[in-house]
Design a protein that fits this description.
The complex is a heterodimer of chains A (1048) and B (494). With 1048 residues, chain A is of the alpha+beta class. Chain A has 36 helices and 23 strands. Helix content of chain A is 39%, strand content 12%. Classes of the chains: A alpha+beta (1048), B alpha/beta (494). Chains A and B meet through helix 27, helix 29, helix 30, helix 33 and helix 34 of A and helix 3, helix 9, helix 10 and strand 16 of B.
């Protein structure tokens, strides 16, 4: 955030300095001083209030407390505050030296005159509803094209300044195009506009730009900063999060010119609208864009508190221009926002189903799946088919139960367990002590010795269980030699330690040179299996799609394989339930049998199950059925249930036995279960290949939250209901107490802030600085508006127009204020140094994305393809590497995606696109409504040396050479494309001289020329002479680096 | 249109330089807009550039002891009781439960909070006394450091509020567990400005550890300037590819060609300035010139071929390997020599949840000789006395074992209640051993130093009063040391 800390020249101070005799205005002149110097101890927050004295209200200031009156209107003598301000006694003087704040002479003078003039208070301007003011009288009436100009000119005239003359058509054509679509116009568009003599030529040009789809991309880009949109989670692993449909929704909303009030409602609460459409659900991604974590040790409640804080802060900055975040630990010290207000708003956002950890997956629930057109029909049908299948299966239970009653009377014990057919290994690991363990293989009993000192720990699944620490494991000899075409199943009870990285649970895998064999493993928070051949080296990996590992909990893991040699032949079951898997790997065709022993607890040499525990390992040389997979974890219960006398069986035991029967022996049930499984697989497959977007989903029950004392997640105070900020308009009468009600409250006509804050941001996009410079803070510590009446007029106009965004922008860019030339004068620099009075046209360095898009557009290489997953253009090597935890590799795109608009760039929060950061693009870790605009040498390095810019320059030169036989015509074409005007003679001279020298240099070093023009993915035309092309490419780069080209 | 170029003619050459340098190291557009042109050329300007490095006019608050900082951050949180916090009583406690009287119900990470037992794991390493100050330390793995403890000050009573990496590193760097605040390097860049003309003020090096068993995430957020203007963010120097992004000319372009191209840019920009009169154009001209100077100076900076063989005897051959910790430390010396104010080095893989025994030797080997070399190298160059060196992680580790415990191996979980850091050089009292923990290295029993106290002390050494060094954002005057009371630790000052 920019701030006037170094030179605290607020707009108010500027205005005052100019008019020492004017009447003091409390909001403009006094409040900023009192707020900054006094309110921390004598303001809104009662807990930190000193001497029970408030100075933020007239009642507080005038009150007599212990005989003392801080302010006595009209009397400096009697006003204790004034006496103490001027005291030389360090115990008396205010502000107290402990605050490290002092009042300067000008500030004291303001306070003096204010008291003398009667110490009138006003309510803070931003909390009063905006009124459509009438413009003041102006002298130069001809200059006023629309009401904006009246407000601007009145202040210019009172400052003794004249507006700048209107800019020429070429300049305006460029400026309008950059402001409305974020791209330069083509020379042809400029020429057409310059030539157009129609009286409404200007308006037509504006309207045409606004119908271009690039309008939405450009407006959307600003909004995406506020929405903190990015393509990764943001914290710790910072992995991919799929939410780009939300980004595309924003762009489309601006292109549709969706009224801003609806735009608001759909993003905050689209899911709560009656029968929400797919688009309305996607819109709710706004509050799923916040940074989330999956760091192992983090505490869920703390994460949830952080997410809610982010959402309140963002909502408050974006719609209210209030720094509500200050009230997360205590009542706001400057503005009337209580800590209770903060948590009452947090309650709206805490009532959603989002989990505290993102799971490091791309689709953290709740999400919406967006199937392709081809899949859409089936995706819609499947839930119904699955439900009716399940109904049929459930209905079968009654007749099946009758058959079961019959069967159980004659059943034998060995029929009530998973068949031991082809059981290559059963290793119970229930010895509880020592190093010898017993196993069974094809009905033979075998004994093994542990490798290393095995620790037996209490709390096993069955008695004491072995724990694999510091290399201890079991070596089981030549068992379970599984080839690539051998169906098999491997399962075990396992307990994975917290923070586990990767290790083999059961393996017969030679890892000494490449990999050969098979293994069951845990990897971070997922279980998986691998089958690998050595000659040729190939492997199949299957890992559960969702996090399946629950650290510290006993889980039954089973993997089955059908011997097909394909990844699709694998299935994973956790606690008997089938899991969607992610499979990779080519078909296996050669031997997968490893010449190493079977091991439990590690591969042949490493990748240990360090800290893990295992019991009841099974290897079958056949593919277990789904029913068997379900029964396997329940085996002990089944055995006990069967052994019990029939009349003594508990209901759970009876159910266990019946389930076994239905899953494994009842034909119709098995068939229907297969059918359902196939449908579910089909459904999952569609989900897997569909685009995903993160959405919001309300939980049942009323929205409540606890006040967190001093903001600490574990210090809960009072429980509060969801509510709007108490100092503002009340929730509309019929509004529900959920996010929908919150959204309706924000855009209610009574809300004094939303329209003001929004038009101010739009103004900032066009003019560089808002009417309120502190776009995120309209509170008493924010800067007062430079043109309060104009701000209010625009706010009312915007709201009454039906929140029509295009209409508002049309107003802004058709004003005389906007059309001014940017040329400045010494007088203007003195009286209006930052152009806050709009004494000249807006001119400032373009945003990061525009700088890149400009070079691409000017060079004719820009792709206008819209939407879709984030693109990965040129980026230096290793930008992701330093931050990477499993995301080190940046896989650069090829072809068209290298040249797409920057709004589509893949945004990794912990390493945003390298060239963007240098130009002040935010990291998107949190909401930004006002970017910085710095001017540093690192920026020059980007535009001179980044391959994206080098290639753009060369393409520009290449086209110019091909289309113009004559050198000076080629130069003119480049200049026209970059500057949208012909070069002046003096410039022409500079360019020609540079070109001449560079061409001579390149001619002497043709290799250098060839190297330079070879930069980028596109290849230069070999028919063009390299030295000439290289020199001309440097000229294109020279022009792209001009101040004029980098500025709007 | 006539322009304001006469305004600039009144500037002295020095002020012009300061003015342009300020754009890089200072505040960008606002500085010129509001200050230089608002109160033009009155006392405003001289005030603004009184500290000609582009820092704030009224800083430092008092004469600094240190002019620059090299901060060695051990990412993951080194185990204090295996390095510097000697706990001989623990040998008797092997595999016994950590008493509740010590743990006092303190919160644990969810990685060990469900552990059934909290068995004490004594350090397996050999400790001995080192130096005149007699510090008991791990001389087995840190033989080089043991030789220079009399130059260092050890704080064994550091404590922090955070228990997981992201928030803890964030607090260590910015004073707050939640992101978005400026880091300490950015504060110093903002407050004190630059001491050179062709390199950034604040440089970050991410060293590659020998062992990568359990690295933690390191991201640009740790060297972000937060709400302070972006030019105060750390510039990350990379060990492969361009040291600074895009610092090298594209292939085929020589320095001379670039010069010719820039001359043309400058001439045309001057024409633009004459026509439009926007002071930012002047700033841009100077920034392109500075970019050119940086391009010239960085290759020289990163080229170690001119270093004599003694350098590599001192730092070890490892220092030749780009990206190693020793190499990064040598780079830090070269950077500070050339006027860089703050160098932050990150060294990863100190997060020893398991296998302390397997990982600690590599970790120590990476940093031990290099730390010794840095101190002695700076000494022989006369820079030790005004360069502050800081070593430490974001928190400590638990005395109880996470996971399996044997006498030779164990793991340790995060521990915010005490950890050890050391400082050396600029204004630090040499041979100091400050603060004490209980027999379990679990609680601080004497002279606690909170992260904010530590920050206050660092600022003090740089001549800054942490109470008065503020930045206005969102209507508040923010301090590095936050709103709670923080104190300068006087006992650490020479």
């Amino acid at each position: 955030m920019k701030s006037p800390a170094l030179f605290p020249l607020t707009f108010a101070a500027l205005a005052l300095a100019a008019s020492a005799e004017t009447k003091i205005d409390f909001n403009r002149d006094v409040r900023p001083i009192l707020s900054d110097k006094c309110f921390a101890c004598h303001g809104f927050d009662p807990k930190n209030r000193k001497a029970d004295r408030r100075l933020d209200t007239p009642e507080g200031a005038l009150a007599e407390i212990e005989g003392i009156r801080a302010i006595v209107p009209g009397s400096l003598e009697k006003s204790d505050a004034w006496q103490r301000i001027n005291s030389t006694d360090k115990d008396e003087v205010m502000p107290t030296p402990k605050s490290h704040k002092t009042l300067n002479a000008a500030e004291k003078d303001v306070l003096k005159r204010w008291i003398e003039q009667g110490a009138h208070y006003q309510k803070h301007w931003a909390f009063e509803a905006p009124q459509r003011a009438v413009t003041s009288e102006v002298k130069d009436k001809a200059w006023v094209r629309n009401p904006i100009d009246g407000f601007v000119l009145a202040q210019l005239e009172s400052a003794g300044l004249k507006p700048a003359p209107e800019a020429d058509r070429r300049t305006l054509a460029r400026r309008l195009s950059l402001d409305l679509i974020g791209l330069p116009p083509t020379p042809e568009q400029v020429a057409a506009f310059v030539k157009d003599e129609a009286p409404d030529a200007y308006e037509k040009y504006v309207a045409k730009l606004m119908t271009s789809p690039q309008w939405g991309e450009h407006r959307g880009r600003y909004w995406l900063d506020a929405a903190r949109y990015a393509d990764t989670h943001g914290l710790h692993f910072d992995k991919y999060r799929e939410i780009w449909p939300y980004r595309d929704w924003v762009i489309s909303a601006f292109n549709r010119n969706q009224p801003f009030d609806q735009f608001t409602v759909e993003q905050l609460a689209g899911d709560l609208l009656p029968k929400p459409t797919r688009e309305q659900l996607i819109a709710t991604g706004f509050h799923r864009c916040n940074a989330t974590t999956n760091e192992g040790g983090t505490i869920d409640e703390e994460n949830m508190a952080n997410y809610a804080t982010d959402r309140v802060t963002t909502t408050s900055w974006v719609w209210l221009g209030l720094t509500a975040n200050c009230a997360s630990c205590h009542d706001h010290k400057f503005d009337p926002i209580t800590q209770k207000d903060f948590y009452s708003m947090a309650a709206f956002f805490r009532n959603t189903s989002q989990p505290p950890k993102d799971g490091n997956v791309k689709d953290t629930k709740p999400v919406i799946y967006l199937p392709s057109d081809k899949d859409e029909k089936r995706f819609a049908e499947l839930p119904g088919e699955i439900t009716s299948g399940k109904k049929v299966l459930a209905e079968r239970r009654t007749p099946a139960a009758k058959d079961f009653e019959q069967w159980i009377t004659t059943a034998k014990a060995e029929q009530v367990e998973v068949s031991p057919d082809a059981l290559a290994l059963r290793l119970p690991l229930e010895e509880g002590a020592g190093v010898d363990v017993k196993a069974e293989s094809f009905e033979q009993e075998v004994t093994f010795k542990a490798a290393g000192p095995i620790e037996w720990h209490e709390g096993g699944k069955f008695g004491n269980a072995p724990k694999f620490t510091n290399g201890a494991h079991f070596q089981l000899g030549d068992l379970a030699a599984i080839n690539h075409d051998q169906p098999f199943s491997v399962g075990a009870w396992v307990n994975v330690p917290a923070n586990f990285k990767e290790g083999a649970i059961v393996a017969r895998l030679d890892d000494r040179k490449g990999l050969q064999g098979w293994e069951l493993f845990a990897q971070a928070n997922k279980f998986g299996a691998r089958l690998a051949t050595a000659q040729p080296a190939a492997q199949i990996n299957v890992v559960s799609k969702n996090p399946t590992v629950r650290a510290g909990i006993w889980q039954h893991v089973l993997v089955t394989y059908d011997g097909s040699g394909t990844a699709a032949g694998f299935r994973i079951f956790i606690d008997g339930k089938p899991q969607p898997g992610v499979t990779t790997g080519a078909p296996l065709k050669t031997s997968a049998v490893a010449a190493v022993p079977l091991r439990v607890g590690q591969r042949e040499t490493k990748t240990r199950f360090e800290g893990g525990r295992v019991q009841d390992v099974r290897v079958y040389l056949r593919e277990l059925t789904t029913g068997e997979a379900r029964s396997l974890p329940d085996e002990r219960n089944l055995r006990a249930a069967f052994a019990a006398a029939p009349e003594k069986r508990s209901p759970a035991q009876k159910a266990s036995l019946l389930n076994f029967y239905i899953d494994n022996l009842d034909g119709p049930s098995i068939e229907m279960a297969y059918h359902i499984e196939a449908l579910e697989e089909e459904d999952q497959a569609i989900r897997d290949r569909s685009t995903v977007s993160h959405i919001q989903e309300e939980k049942a029950g009323p929205a409540m939250a606890a006040v967190l004392i001093r903001g600490a997640y574990d210090k809960e105070g009072e429980q509060v209901e969801a509510a709007a900020f108490s100092a503002l308009n009340p929730l509309p009468a019929n509004a529900p107490k959920n996010r929908l009600g919150l959204a309706q409250w924000l855009v209610a006509p009574e809300n004094p802030l939303a329209a003001r804050v929004t038009v101010n941001r739009f103004w900032q996009e066009i003019f560089g600085t808002g009417i309120v410079k502190t776009a995120e803070d309209f509170g008493s510590q924010g800067e007062v508006p430079s043109h309060p009446a104009l701000l209010d007029w625009l706010a009312v106009e915007f709201r009454e127009s039906g929140w029509d965004v295009k209409k508002l922008f049309t107003l802004l860019v058709t004003s005389s204020a906007y059309r001014q030339s940017a040329v400045t004068t010494p007088q203007k620099l003195e009286k209006d140094p930052q152009n806050r009075l709009f004494s000249r046209g807006p001119r400032f360095r373009m945003d990061a994305e525009m700088v890149r898009d400009y070079a691409l557009a000017a060079s004719g290489t820009l792709s206008l393809k819209m939407g879709g997953p984030g693109t990965r253009p040129y980026q230096p090597e290793n930008v992701w590497e330093v931050v990477g935890m499993g995301t080190e590799r940046y896989a650069q795109d090829k072809g068209e995606n290298l040249y797409r608009r920057t709004v589509y760039n893949f945004w990794k929060r912990m390493a945003p696109p390298a060239s963007m950061e240098v130009f002040n693009a935010p990291s998107r870790e949190s909401c930004v409504v006002r970017r910085e605009r710095t001017n540093t040498p690192l920026q020059a390095l980007v535009t001179l040396n980044d391959p994206q810019f080098v290639e753009a320059g060369r393409r520009l030169a290449e086209a110019a050479m091909k289309e113009n036989a004559d050198q000076s015509a080629a130069i003119s074409q480049i200049a026209e494309r970059v500057l949208l005007r012909p070069l002046k003679p003096a410039e022409n001279e500079v360019v020609n001289k540079t070109l001449h020298d560079l061409e001579a240099d390149f001619a002497a070093h043709e290799d250098a020329a060839k190297a330079y023009i070879a930069i980028g993915e596109t290849k230069p035309d070999p028919a063009l002479p390299a030295p000439r092309l290289a020199a001309l490419a440097m000229i294109a780069s020279q022009l792209l680096n001009l101040d004029e080209a980098l500025n709007k | 249109m006539n322009c304001n170029s006469h305004l600039f003619q009144n500037l002295t050459e020095a002020a012009k330089l300061a003015l342009t340098r300020r754009q890089f190291f200072g505040r960008g557009r606002n500085a010129l807009g509001a200050a230089a042109l608002g109160s033009l050329l009155g006392d405003g300007l001289t005030r603004a550039f009184a500290s000609d490095a582009g820092g704030l006019p009224n800083l430092p608050h008092f004469p600094p002891k240190a002019k620059r900082v090299i901060y060695l951050h051990m990412v993951g949180g080194p185990s204090q009781m295996d390095l510097y916090d000697y706990k001989p009583e623990m040998a008797k406690m092997y595999d016994k439960d950590l008493p509740d009287s010590i743990r006092q119900g303190q919160r644990l990470t969810t990685m060990t909070s469900k552990q059934a037992r909290f068995p004490v794991a004594p350090s397996k390493y050999k400790f001995a006394q080192a130096g005149q100050c007699g510090l008991w330390m791990n001389t087995e793995l840190l033989p080089w450091t043991a030789k220079c403890v009399d130059d260092m000050a050890f704080i064994r009573s550091m404590h922090t509020d955070a228990i997981n990496h992201e928030p803890a590193i964030c607090e260590m760097q910015t004073g707050s567990q939640i992101g978005g605040r400026p880091c300490i390097g950015s504060w110093l860049s903002y407050g004190l400005g630059s001491m050179n003309q062709n390199l950034p003020t604040f440089v970050v090096l991410v060293a590659k550890p020998t062992n990568n068993e359990q690295n933690q995430a390191i991201s640009g957020r740790l060297w972000s300037s937060g709400f302070i203007p972006g030019e105060h963010s750390g510039v990350s120097f990379r060990s492969s590819g361009d040291p600074i992004l895009f610092i090298n000319n594209p292939t085929g372009v020589t320095k001379e060609m670039r010069r010719r191209q820039l001359d043309g840019i400058r001439e045309m920009n001057e024409m633009t300035f004459k026509e439009i009169g926007d002071p930012e154009t002047q700033v841009r001209i100077s920034q392109y010139e500075m970019a050119f100077r940086m391009q010239a100076s960085v290759p020289e900076l990163t080229d170690l071929s001119g270093e004599p063989s003694e350098t590599f005897e001192l730092y070890g051959e490892e220092a030749r390997k780009p990206g190693s910790f020793a190499n990064s430390v040598l780079m830090a010396r070269r950077l500070t020599e050339r006027g860089v104010r703050f160098v932050q080095i990150y060294h990863n893989n100190w997060d020893h949840h398991s296998n302390v025994g397997g990982r600690m030797p590599d970790q120590c080997r990476d940093v031990d000789q290099a730390s010794y070399a840095l101190i002695n190298d700076l000494k022989q160059r006369g820079m030790f006395e005004d360069t502050l060196i800081i070593w430490g992680g974001e928190f400590g580790r638990t005395i109880y074992s996470q996971g399996g415990l044997t006498t030779t191996n164990y793991g340790r979980d995060h521990h915010p209640r005490c950890f050890t850091m050391w400082m050396a050089g600029g204004g630090v009292k040499p041979g100091t051993i400050y603060g004490e923990t209980d027999d379990f290295s679990y609680n601080v029993v004497k002279d606690p130093v909170h992260v904010h106290d530590f920050h206050a002390t660092v600022l003090h050494l740089l001549g800054l009063d942490h109470e008065r060094f503020t930045y206005r954002a969102q209507g508040l005057d923010f301090k590095l040391t936050g709103v709670e009371h923080a104190k300068v630790v006087k006992a650490l000052l020479a």
